[in-house]
Each structure stands twice: as C-alpha cells, then as structure tokens.
Amino acid sequence: AALTVRFLTRRFIGEYGDMEFIYSHNLTVDGREILFHIWDVPSSQQAEEGSSEEKRIQWADCFVLVYSICDRASFNILPLKIQFIKAAKEGQSQEKVPIIIVGNKRDLHHQRVVSSEEGRLLALSLDCGFYEVSAAE
C-alpha cells in the first residue's frame, strides 16, 4: 500500500490497515495519456486461494509483486505466486504476462535479510523484471 500511495500521490504514509483497494490514476507517458487501475491487495489477503485470487489475476493485464527486503517470508512466496499467475494468464494465450518483482524498504538496508542479488536471480529465473525501491524515500 505504501508503494501504491507513493506512486499515486508522491507522499509517504508509513502505516496502513489490512484493506484491499482499487485505485484509478491518469498518467502521461511518452506523450500518451494512460489510465491505470491498480488493485492493491495486502499480503494477508494474497494468500487466498480460489475464486477471489483467480478473479484478481483475470482482471489484471500486468503484475507488480512487492516484497520487503527485511522479510524473508514475503520473498519466499513469490515463486509460487508467479507460477500461479503464469498458469492462469499464459494458459489462455501464448502472450507472456508482464510481471515485475519489487523489493521494497531499500532504506532499511541495516535490517536487510534478502540480498539484491537474490532478488535479481529470482526475477531472472522466472523471466520477470526486477527493481529495488524505497517507498519512504
């Protein structure tokens, strides 16, 4: 949620509830107006199985999966999530689904438990993009 709000408002808010939101946002990219719809799902709700998770995957055109560099568990669930997304999306067509892995909390490097190299290697092995950021900065 912090990363989404930072993208939409350019402000950082550190604490969020455990709620799911859909945001809409217009942005000009290369002279073209782009309308984003962002379905922000807290990590506690990402573990859901079944129709709710499937609905989110079918709704989306691309995926940004965010983990905390300070939380190994949030990183470890990524391969399973990505396999689930690819099976649901790419099984219907031959097009590659755009997926980006984002390691957040780069500013908390002193609490880091997932290295940048681990993130890059995971993204490379799963054919995903990769970035490390700090929503706070």
From TrEMBL:
Keyword Hydrolase appears in the UniProt entry: yes
One GO molecular-function entry: GTP binding
SUPFAM superfamilies named among the record's database cross-references: P-loop containing nucleoside triphosphate hydrolases
Pfam entry (one): Ras
Catalytic activity: GTP + H2O = GDP + phosphate + H(+)
EC number, as in UniProt: 3.6.5.2
Keywords: GTP-binding, Hydrolase, Nucleotide-binding
EC class name: hydrolase
Protein family according to the UniProt entry: Belongs to the small GTPase superfamily. Ras family.
Protein name per its UniProtKB record: small monomeric GTPase
